[in-house]
Amino acid sequence: MADFAIIGAGLAGISLAHKLKLAGHTCSVFEKSRGLGGRLATRRLDAWQADHGAQYFTATSPAFSSEVGRWLDKGWIKPWTVTPWLLTREHLGPSPDQQERFVGIPNMNAMVHGLAAGTQLYMKTRIDRLEADGDQWRLWDEHGEHYGNYDAVILTAPMAQSQALLPTEVINAAMIGSQTMTPTWAMALAFEQPTGIEADVVFVKDGIVSWAARDTAKPGRPQNYETWVLHFSPQWSANHLDASPDLLQQQVLEVLERLAKAALPNIYQSFSHRWLYARAASSEPVHQWHSASGIGLAGDWTQGNRIEDAWTSANSLAAILLKAYA
Ligand code: NAI
User: Which pLDDT tens digit goes with each residue over 216-230?
Assistant: First the structure.
């Protein structure tokens, strides 16, 4: 049985820990923030909440679809049945499709919490150095504390952060040198009164904002205020990394006013969040396991940029590790 260290408590890290633990291995998960789930994120405020990271997820592969079935049975997620709308410069209208979409209940990270049960978690622990000790690894955090030794270390953080920890030979073998991730600004608002907007979900094309959704249209959300979440396009976000809350709010209100075709009610509260590493720009698969050094890579960015990709990366690395450490 092997001792694994996993860096990052997002869906990739936690589902990998879950699978390795089921097979009898020991796993410790290190996470720099206070919460589980990474970009599967929900913020709670005064009598309202909003999903400011991933908005929903879909399932395409049979393996992920059956995992989603298990999450449904556990009550961690529910289908989000909506008719999307499309907003372009000239047009606004429904854009119906057959896509099945899912959200966590009552928060986007509910399934990550479910899968993490019984896993050794080190929260608020930022690992900033890996030290080789024979054929094992010792981990050092930013305060000079050390952890381990571990037989293998799995990095799941967005690429730019993982790269800083990786030995050069692993970077070369994984061929990750040229991969980049693009940012996304998110803004969430709670209105004092209903907005009267007909659409619940709006894909925005060719705009500064790329997505607008009524968060209170998702199942299992508190209904005290009508809430909206908007995401800005990767291009605009990259060009306005230091955008002020006022600038963000002004852009958001322009879109919502177009959707409402009327003046909007007063805003009760709002917040913005910058996802510096929101989505991988390329979906070229990354080589996930470097056996000579005992270092693995997982995370959506190793295969694409969706929640399914995060889970698939953990599933495929788990298969490799269970063989390597049988
Ligand atoms: P999906 O298959 O529902 O949508 C993929 C893309 O197709 C959408 O972004 C949208 O541009 C378009 N689309 C889908 N249905 C449409 C409709 N009925 N009418 C018009 N356009 C439609 O979802 P998928 O691929 O599973 O991704 C989930 C969501 O997460 C997507 O919205 C995706 O863009 C978004 N995403 C956002 C990231 C960010 O950083 N903001 C990162 C990764 C994904």
Answer: 999 999 999 999 999
